[in-house]
Structure to design on (304 residues):
């Protein structure tokens, strides 16, 4: 059951925290946590395996990784106050190896967005510096709204991975760092994003980790991030201009639009995690004291 603890450990790194915390606590919440844990243990797919992603694609899942299907992954998210939408496909987590060592604290969230065929011709002309400046300006403009909602303002500091598009594989990779302007998050959460374009939409594999660990974690997850491929008939090259839907935006707009949404949620996470600490600690109790110790260390508190 150690791998089940791994998913809960990783979930605390999530940036998709809901605006309103769960209201149920105590014994009922612990029972809920136990039920989710039991459900995950029954359905988790362990690598090596081929995991179907809707009717669109297949994921090559290597050894020492686990895939949690949509329903159970969404329940795990809900347990700690996270929201998922209809595009959510599931989660990938690292599993313990026989060699032991420190346990990774990342996970990958998978989504499929039926946005339509996304034209990629603007990737030949985009300017990563200008894209970053657009993100910075948009984030700064939205800070007034964040402050009205009681959310600390943030600033985009840099590309962790500047937007890179491989036209041969139709893969887009990018990652931006956002920090609270008051400097209280010295090791902010990072979303390292990989998109695979298809005929009818795109698959996103988002590695959730921290700034200090992103280089190591994206290396260890590299095979996963490149392991999703569309099925025959669903691939980018299968596009039929006379019948298929074309998305209303291109790659540059995809980066800018998705980034703006994610950076807003990052700010929400930073503002509310302390508020939810008691509720989260109750849920964690069902998964073992070791996770509680880790969670307290991330908050910078001392053991009682």
């Amino acid at each position: 059951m150690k791998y089940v603890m791994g998913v809960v450990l990783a979930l605390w790194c999530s940036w998709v925290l809901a605006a309103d915390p769960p209201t149920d606590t105590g014994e009922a919440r612990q029972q809920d946590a136990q039920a989710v844990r039991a459900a995950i243990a029954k359905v988790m797919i362990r690598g090596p395996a081929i995991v179907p992603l809707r009717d669109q694609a297949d994921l090559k899942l290597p050894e020492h990784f686990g895939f949690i299907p949509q329903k159970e992954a969404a329940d795990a998210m809900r347990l700690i106050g996270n929201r998922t939408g209809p595009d959510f496909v599931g989660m990938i987590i690292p599993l313990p190896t026989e060699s032991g060592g420190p346990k990774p604290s990342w996970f990958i969230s998978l989504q499929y967005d039926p946005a339509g065929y996304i034209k990629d011709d603007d990737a030949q002309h985009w300017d990563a510096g200008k894209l970053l400046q657009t993100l910075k300006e948009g984030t700064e403009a939205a800070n007034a709204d964040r402050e009205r909602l009681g959310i600390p303002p943030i600033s985009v500091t840099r590309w962790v991975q500047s937007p890179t598009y491989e036209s041969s594989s139709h893969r887009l990779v990018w990652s931006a760092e956002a920090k609270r302007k008051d400097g209280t998050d010295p090791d902010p959460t990072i979303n390292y994003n990989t998109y695979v374009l298809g005929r009818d939409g795109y698959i996103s594999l988002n590695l959730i980790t921290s700034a200090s660990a992103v280089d190591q974690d994206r290396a260890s997850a590299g095979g996963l991030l490149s392991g999703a491929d569309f099925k025959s008939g669903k691939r980018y090259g299968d596009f039929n201009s006379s019948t298929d839907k074309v998305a209303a935006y291109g790659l540059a707009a995809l980066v800018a639009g998705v980034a703006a949404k994610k950076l807003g949620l990052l700010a929400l996470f930073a503002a509310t995690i302390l508020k939810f600490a008691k509720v989260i600690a109750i849920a964690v109790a069902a998964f073992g004291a070791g996770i509680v110790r880790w969670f307290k260390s991330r908050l910078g508190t001392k053991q009682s």
